[in-house]
From TrEMBL:
It comes from Camelina sativa. InterPro entries: UDP_glucos_trans. The keyword tRNA-binding does not apply. The keyword DNA damage does not apply. Gene3D superfamilies: Glycogen Phosphorylase B (3.40.50.2000). The lineage of its organism: Eukaryota, Viridiplantae, Streptophyta, Embryophyta, Tracheophyta. CDD domains: GT1_Gtf-like. This is UDP-glycosyltransferase 76E6-like.
């Protein structure tokens, strides 16, 4: 009788946030389709196991000890991550020990979100191979490496110097020191310390990045030369694995609404899964969008109920449609959508480029600013909104600039050009396709 070979197991450890969980699960699906077993280890909130029906064949394990969501609200991003890493290591080791005891369990590798560096220490303790997964851009990875070498006090003094601000980071044109994401992520000294922890505690033998070489070739070469471990740019993962997986319920009524709109007439607005605008800003945005005279589809996570009544009425009377959560990839791929007003999270950026949709950028912090800089100055498929406050006049001008002006048409053309390049990169023989192939070969040697 033929003996069936047991599948080798990959343990995945995502950060419990939509923008990190989604690409990790897409990676899981890609590796599952290549013959690996998948175990997802999760903390106590944003659990994917609640929608495990979308991941047939996956095993889900919850850490005994991890932080609750309230700690994220209380501490903010950086402090939360530092504490999460301190508190989860022992539980994770228990979890790996249990998995190894299971009959037939043969762990080929632990793949962890690079910010969950406690996994590297645990993998080392069990003598298991580990790989980091970067769910943000390669350029953001570079910027973290650069920041891990900086001293917060000196950096603050240096940034007073306009010449230093404009200086390009070692051979990394167009990345200047002033573009390094440092704001909005917590106090600078804690941010730099976190970057150092991420860099120093790394024991992984390779890095997987959800990016495409045609978008970030200079940053990828920098990483290859400076990090000293193999890099696998296998993205955008959402183009290779379907269906996408959302932690929140998607309101599909917007697809019916889109069907009634003219081709490329709609501007889609979403600021991701974490950030919210204040009531005043939302009202300004609503006025500006209405005055832009283009139909718009707007994701407001608290729903239209959160708008002042007169604003909500105006929006529905003047061509707007609001949902709490949209099937974003499908929306961006709909022929009626002609522009994306985005906070420039990396997933949203990749999803927009993959559908050839030009962007209006409203980044809030750190890496989003870096992505916005690339969208505006490197790929030239969008622009940043003027001013630091949301102002109805600026919103109206931005919508018209993207959707009606010749300049917007140029951005659209370049976005469509990039879309074709991305399509080619995930097809047989393309760079991301080949990188995934190489990754699978590498995992099979483990
Ligand atoms: N997203 C979605 N529906 C929405 C808004 C967002 O499915 O209404 C998804 C979007 O497709 C993307 C993710 O949420 O995959 C947001 O990730 P991103 O990195 O852009 O931003 P973050 O939420 O991490 O700030």
């Amino acid at each position: 009788m033929e003996r069936r070979e047991a599948k080798r197991r990959i343990v995945l450890v995502p950060i419990p946030a939509q923008g990190h969980v989604t690409p990790m699960l897409q990676l899981g699906k890609a590796l599952y389709s290549k013959g690996f077993s998948i175990t997802v280890v999760e903390g106590h909130f944003n659990q994917v196991s609640s929608s495990s029906q979308h991941f047939p064949g996956f095993q889900f394990v919850t850490l005994k000890e991890s932080l609750p969501e309230s700690e994220f609200q209380r501490l903010g991003g950086i402090e939360f991550m530092i504490k999460l890493n301190k508190t989860s290591e022992a539980s994770f080791k228990d979890c790996i020990a249990q998995l190894l005891l299971q009959q037939g369990s043969d762990i080929a590798c632990i793949i962890y979100d690079e910010f969950m560096y406690f996994c590297g220490a645990a993998a080392k303790a069990f003598n298991l191979p580990s790989i980091i997964f970067t769910t943000t851009s390669a350029t953001n990875y570079v910027s973290r490496c650069v920041r891990s070498k900086l001293n917060a006090d000196k950096f603050l003094v240096d940034m007073e110097d306009p010449e230093m601000q404009e200086q390009v980071v070692e051979n990394l044109y167009p990345l200047r020191y002033k573009d390094l994401p440092t704001s909005g992520l917590g106090p600078l000294d804690r941010l730099f310390e976190f970057c150092r922890e991420v860099a120093n505690k790394r024991t992984a033998s390779a890095a997987i990045i959800n990016t495409v070489s045609c978008l970030e070739s200079s940053s990828l070469s920098w990483l290859e030369q400076n990090i000293g471990i193999p890099m696998y740019p296998i993205g955008p993962l959402h183009m290779t694995t379907f269906p996408p997986s959302s932690l929140l319920d998607e309101d599909r009524s917007c697809i019916e609404w889109l069907k009634k709109q003219k081709p490329r007439s709609v501007i889609y607005i979403s600021l991701g899964s974490i950030f919210d605008m204040g009531t005043k800003e939302v009202s300004e945005m609503a006025w500006g969008l209405c005055d832009g005279n283009q139909p718009f589809l707007w994701v407001i996570r608290d729903g239209s109920e959160s708008l002042p009544e007169e604003v909500s009425t105006m929006v529905s009377e003047r061509g707007g449609y609001i949902v709490k959560w949209a099937p974003q990839i499908e929306v961006l791929g709909h022929p009626a959508v002609g522009g994306f007003w985005s906070h420039c999270g990396w997933n949203s950026t990749l999803e927009s480029i993959a559908e050839g949709v030009p962007m209006i950028c409203m980044p809030f912090h750190g890496e989003q600013m870096l992505n916005a800089m690339y969208i505006e100055s490197v790929w030239r498929i969008g622009f940043q909104v003027e001013g630091s406050k949301v102002d109805r006049g600026e919103v109206e001008r931005a919508v018209k600039r993207l959707m009606m002006d010749d300049e917007g048409a140029g951005m659209q053309e370049r976005a469509l050009d990039l879309k074709e390049k991305l399509k080619a990169s995930v097809k047989s023989g393309g760079t991301s396709y080949n990188a995934l192939d190489e990754l699978v070969k590498y995992l099979k040697t483990m």
